[in-house]
Design brief:
This protein is mostly helical and about 70 residues long. It has helices at about 5-15, 20-25, 30-40, 45-55, 60-65.
């Protein structure tokens, strides 16, 4: 698993003022998937990365915590 991945997913969700249920629906994922990612019980998958990328999330930051230059 990627350290901090779940925390960054949670940061994205909270910055959009969304519940896990609403956020999951916007991504086409289940609430349980989002909860598992945020809690570190599940890492990322291509499905999760694609869904977040479609929402305009910077994947470099999401995976590595790298700030934009």
């Amino acid at each position: 698993m990627v350290p901090g991945f779940g925390k960054r997913v949670r940061e994205i969700r909270l910055s959009r003022d969304m519940t896990q249920e609403v956020f999951a629906a916007s991504l086409g994922l289940s609430k349980q998937t989002v909860a598992n990612v945020e809690n570190g019980h599940r890492g990322f998958s291509l499905e999760i990365l694609e869904a977040l990328h479609r929402q305009g999330v910077d994947l470099n930051w999401l995976i590595a915590g790298a700030e934009k230059e």
